[in-house]
Amino acid sequence: MKQYITRRVGYCLLSLFLLSVTIFFFVRVTGDPATLLVEPGASEADIAAIHHQFGLDKPLWVQYGIFLASLAHGDLGQSFYYRTPVMELYLSRLPNSLYLAAVAMALSLLIGIPSGVLASVRVGHFWDNFGKMFTLLGLSLPSFWVGLVLILVFSVYLGWLPSSGAGTPLHLIMPAFALGWYFAAAHMRLTRSSMLEVLGSEYVKLARLKGLPQSLVIAKHAFKNALIPVLTLAGINLVIMVNVAIVVEVVFAWPGIGRLLYEGITFRDFPVVQGVVLMGGTMIVIVNMVIDILYAVIDPRIRLGS
Amino acid sequence: MNPPIERRKDRARASGLTRRAALVAAGAAATATTLAPYRVFAATPQGQLTWGVHVSLAPTWFDPAETPGLITPFMVLYALHDAMVKPMPGQPFAPCLAESVGASEDGLSYEFVLRKEATFHNGDPVTAEDVKFSFERYRGASHDVMKARVAAIETPDQRHVNFKLKTAWPDFLTFYGSATGAGWIVPKKYVEKVGADGFKKAPIGAGPYKFVSFTPGVELVFEAFEQYWRKTPGVKRLVFRVIQEETTRLAALKRGEVDIVYSIRGELAEELQRTPSLTLKPVASPATFWLYFADQWDAKSPWHDERVRLAASLAVDRPSINQALTLGLSKLTGNPIVPDFFDFYWQAPAPPYDPAKAGRFLAEAGYPKGFDAGDYYCDSSYSNLAEAVVDNLGAVGIRTKLRPLERAAFLEGYGKKSLKNIIQGGTGAFGNAATRLEAVAVKGGVYAYGSDPEIDRMFQEQAAEMDHERRTVILRKMQQLLAERTIFAPIWQLAFINGVGPRVGQSGFDLIQGFAYTGPYEDITLKGS
User: Fold this and answer.
1) pLDDT band at residue B69, thresholds of 50, 70 and 90?
2) Using the beta-carbon criterion (under 8 Å), do A162 and B200 form an inter-chain contact?
3) B196-212, pLDDT tens digit by residue?
4) How far apart are alpha carbons B115 and B111 in whole angstroms?
5) Does the distance separating the beta carbons of A92 and B245 come in below 8 Å?
6) Kind plus residue range of the DSSP H or E element containing B402
7) Do B56 and A162 touch (CB under 8 A)?
8) Which of A81, A250, A255 sits opposite B58 (nearest CB)?
């Protein structure tokens, strides 16, 4: 087990190293940030001064070395646009993103799981068809459109909810719904298929043959096992929600990490883009590692096989 | 040893500094008569106004030393800081921290006299040393141009500052007083104490509003500085909320979550106009848009033929585009480069829409069935405008492919002259006709792919001309030649459309000519206050 964990940690570090190389060099392919920090048509001297100020005049490998050295000290660099340490910016936005993601995830599970179960036990009936429609819409409607419709209905026409910003629980409702709907649909679909698979398994058939009531078969025997892949996906989705709620955060002016990333991309703010992507990548890698280790703990065949 | 103000006025006039004469005339005496009542009758600032801002606010905007040649940072500078002279209602170069300005007869020296009552937010008086320090630390737009021309800054006492120029430079005040942040004053002692980064975190200025808090990318809060020399601001607290999505900004305005929003376009502007409690506030911005025929300098290109360029210009249905995209509020001046309120502006003939004539010109030029004109490049933020123009060109047979580029890539390509065929250009930079033409139409200009020798010669001539009238004649002639030779095809002078909610009394829109945002902030009021 110890060897297995060591190997997994090694893979994680390798993944993060590759991610740092990829994001560092790819972000530089997008162009020169100085173009956006000086007046249109600025002199070569002005542009050179900007390059010097941000260390962009050094060779790429030197820049990367400095970046890695800073990273080792927990320093993600300073934002070109905000002139603030990226870590400071990131940590100021992180609570908002966690808050939004947690509520959106709760909503998505509260909607997705019961409707998935209902659809699986009423295959071909109203709830199944309704669920399919819900899934289709959830997965296909762009979240910016959903967000704008929500604003139009609940803010402008009904006047019930604030249109944008953060600060009160009311501010959270629409962005959480806009973000959560897609994931609710995904969770509903997975719950349905997982439940159908479990309901068709031998042990469920046996339970039924033993004369157990349908509700008990579903709740006690099928549901618990069907829930495992859904919760695994939910764990990964939660990390994704924290890091990539870009569109929803921009539409609702929600001060989270997604909006920070959007601003970083808009202004070619390399340190911000690198920092946000790396932190997001780190979260995903760590969550995956924890899941892998838990699987190995639960199922020894995994660690022995590896 | 300072010449009397009236004498300096005469000298300025004699030097041909017409606009500057207005500035000098609005010196000490005007200050005493027109500004004093503000102070007598000023009430205590009350209430809060909230803005829905379309761009992410940056802390570099708190420091005038880093002002780029863009209009956006002035949205913040007008609240937090004050300048020696700056554009104000009715005055392009209004004396602010300087109560008077004078130019020497030979144009080699400018003398500023500081206002006694001007103080920074920490209570320190604004001194000549602060002025000198602010200029010397300035590293924003055109700092190299300015510093190369200023030989020395003398501060004989705490209230007098003399700028000595190496050679006569008729545009000194244009640069110092409007086109850059060099004339915006920061407190030397404080900046030296906290450093440049510390200053951005807790800026202190001499403007009508004090800094309270800033959450990067989210919100900026100011509070009224009651000791502001010009007048006590009417509103106690100003909050700038960043709402990048246009539809959300409008929704926030409709719900009363914000009181003023910037940049609402097209259908949303129509919706704003239809809403009874809201007011549409278009501002005539200095942003002009044009078509530039990049290949015209190549004798083998169809664009080398003036008739082809004229055909393209005649093909553009400007009124319809204007109506569809900016509710008809943009100006169709016919001058592709210079906005109508800039110094030395030349009023071009109205740009006609005549596709039949365009077809005839094309036929005469040897393209009766039109031709494949290659690519049409634009900044993707204005691809809606580009789509309409491409359609118009296609209708007369000038077939182009639209190539919208992300803003930075577009500017980079335009500046490096790597774009070809047709470029949809535009600029909102401050300055005057000379500064605008220099960038796009004169040899060596950042966006000039080629140039006309006659125009180049005239540009050099005007640059050395201190007589305002004679300079005006030259610069207007240059604009006329550009129009006659269809080096550019004008599109419009963009209207920047904003919205104002029911709580606002004086919004501050359109008080300062050409300023797209609200200002001056001390003039803004809540209804009923």
Assistant:
1) low
2) no
3) 889 999 999 999 999 99
4) 13
5) no
6) strand B398-405
7) no
8) A81
